[in-house]
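User: I would dearly like some help making sense of a protein record. This is the protein in question:
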Amino acid sequence: MSAHVTDEQIRALAATAKPYSVALLRWGPERTMDGADAIELEHQRRMVSLRAEGVIAILCPVASDTMAGIAIMTVPTEEATQIMAGDPCVRAGMMRCEVHPCHGFPGDALPA
């Protein structure tokens, strides 16, 4: 690490933290079921729509045999859990979803 961070900088950043929910999507046992491609397309459409609506702040598909994706959501954990329970891939058993409360810092973003 080359950047020097002071205790004051840490405290100042921590004071700006806001609550979010993180949804962890893992591939499930029905990943390759008949019709999986169409169901996954509907999952993708829904996730991009939630992103466009601001419900998902950061959407990260994961290239893995076990992990399908990560979404940082702007809604409380209970609401995020309900939203993700309605996901086409989750309903079909193609994915499993865990939602956890987390904190983030305003202005954080992925580099362009």
User: Anything to note?
Assistant: The beta strands are 18-27, 56-61, 67-73, 95-104.
